[in-house]
Design brief:
binds S-adenosylmethionine, 2 domains, alpha/beta, Rossmann fold, 261 residues
Length: 261
């Protein structure tokens, strides 16, 4: 057993606390009336992590010292960037005060800023700007201004990375539009050169069946077995993530270089 003073002196108490609260798990169980749940389920988790993998595969090929994640939401991507590439200058930006509060709460050591980048462009000489699953939420008329603001934040020759749902995915109420490489290309052509497109997240039978067997969208039951979860992730990465058949791919990534003036 350790006493209070020596625990504090060694920093062990702080470390214990930080390790425990990598995720605030006390928020998981809920009781609403007689309705009790001790699980929260994110049915698209494997696809979200797959998207991070695609972006990291792009970033691995780009030497960068600084990165700005525009529309950073809760900051999860920036946290993983920090863990994977130490010593870089990182900034997350979002117009939502709530998203920034979450991002700061979950990542007290990282920098986040509440800002609408279209209304208040961030001038900078950054190496990379990311727009991950952001532009489908932006009205089409505002997209040129958003992409121009992304360019302003980049140094000449700096890289923009975008991920979007592809037109293969049905449009839902939260999105203004989905994209294929031609519509995205038309938007980027004026400002960005060397545009490269990476379709991913193919809709394949085996991973889909496993996902459905695990409870699908999570309405009926959740399988918490590590064995089954790992099988889903392995099959997803094996069959879906880098699907070579573009017509099956539900997502599209793009990396492009800011053209020199
Ligand atoms: C669907 S979320 C994506 C969050 C995160 N990139 C991810 O993939 O998990 C889109 C985010 O973009 C932000 N956003 C949209 N337009 C923006 C703008 N002009 N400036 C800054 N953030 C913006 C929204 O507030 C929202 O948090």
């Amino acid at each position: 057993m350790i006493d209070e003073q020596s625990a504090s002196r060694t920093g062990r108490r702080e470390r214990l606390q930080e390790e425990q609260y990598d995720f605030p798990y006390h928020y998981i169980p809920v009781l609403r009336g007689n309705d009790y749940s001790q699980t929260q389920y994110y049915p698209w988790g494997h696809r979200y992590l797959g998207r991070l993998q695609i972006v990291f595969e792009i970033l691995d090929g780009l030497p960068f010292r600084s990165l700005v994640d525009v529309g950073c939401g809760d900051g999860r991507f920036l946290r993983d960037v920090d863990r994977r590439y130490s010593g870089r200058t990182l900034l997350g930006i979002d117009l939502s005060a709530r998203a920034i509060a979450w991002a700061r709460g979950m990542n007290p050591n990282l920098a986040f800023e509440e800002r609408d980048i279209t209304a208040a462009p961030l001038e900078g000489e950054h190496d990379v700007v990311t727009l991950l699953d952001v532009i489908e939420h932006v009205p089409p008329a505002s997209l040129p201004a958003l992409l121009a603001a992304a360019a302003v934040a980049l140094r000449p020759d700096g890289h923009l990375i975008i991920t979007v749902p592809s037109t293969r995915m049905p449009l839902d109420a939260k999105h203004y539009q989905h994209f294929d490489r031609h519509t995205l290309d038309a938007l980027l052509a004026g400002t960005f050169s060397d545009r490269r497109y990476i379709p991913f997240d193919g809709k394949r039978l085996l991973p889909w069946l496993l996902w459905a067997a695990m409870g699908g969208s999570g309405r009926h039951y959740v399988v918490t077995s590590r064995l089954v979860s790992n099988l889903l992730m392995r099959c997803y990465r094996r069959w879906s993530l880098h699907d070579t058949q573009e017509s099956r791919c539900q997502r599209l990534a793009c990396v492009a270089r800011r053209a020199c003036a």
